[in-house]
Amino acid sequence: MNLKDNNLDHIAIIMDGNGRWAEKKGLERTAGHxxxxxxxxxxxxxxxxxxxxxxxxxxxxxENWMRSSDEVEFLMFFNRDxxxxxxxxxxxxxxxxHFLGDLNDEKIPEENKLLMSETEEMTSSNTKLxxxxxxxxGSYNEIHNGITNFINENKQNVDxxxxxxxxxxxxxxxxxxxxDLLIRTAGEQRLSNFLLYQLSYTELMFFETLWPEFxxxxxNKAVEEFSKRKRTYGKA
Length: 236
Ligand code: IPE
Ligand code: IPE
Ligand code: MG
Prior knowledge:
Elements: E1 10-14, H1 18-24, H2 29-49, E2 54-61, H3 69-92, E3 95-100, H4 110-122, E4 129-137, H5 139-153, H6 160-166, E5 181-184, E6 203-206, H7 216-228
Parallel strand pairs: 1-2, 1-5, 2-4, 3-4, 5-6
Helix pairs in contact: 1-2, 2-3, 3-4
The structure holds 3-methylbut-3-enyl trihydrogen diphosphate (2 copies) and magnesium ion (MG).
């Protein structure tokens, strides 16, 4: 599958359905998150072998703090544990890690913050694949934060042409291209506060498959379907 010929540089994934996967098996919801690691790993390896340039995954939303404290605590633990165990492997393969979200939030444990900044630094010269972890991410926060910084820095210059041209510089990762394809697993057809600005012209695809059961086969299917879509960007 040649992604370049299809102009497919950036895939974003809403990894959903971990809880339902676990409940179906009579397990705790947290077992579903743990099981999702395999699908994430497969997706990263798939991205590497297909020369994808950007892969963005939604790992924790600004609304996910409303889950039970046990689940939130597990997710914080799991995210740092995953980084500790796997970052070296992906670093060697040329993966550059980025973390997208409100990373200064005091609700995030210090150890997670440290691991994220270390991992970003450690992989900063890698060029094979940009892997973006959306963590404590919400589009409202990203856009409101951007507006605040924009106004503070450009007090004299706020006219619409200037904003149209410069506003992207105030998103969390200005150099991140907009996703070409968004995949959401587990059947819900909504964005859940994910990349509202950046998904304006993205092709959307929804899979019934629960995230822990998602595999390379589904990614290949998504690329196949993407290659049939005609992107017109408002032109006729
Ligand atoms: C997605 O799976 C993972 C996170 C939100 C962290 P869910 O935990 O939302 O799984 P469901 O939607 O309850 O099945
Ligand atoms: C979106 O999934 C967040 C992540 C996958 C991290 P949710 O399961 O939290 O979203 P809703 O509640 O179905 O909208
Ligand atoms: Mg969910």
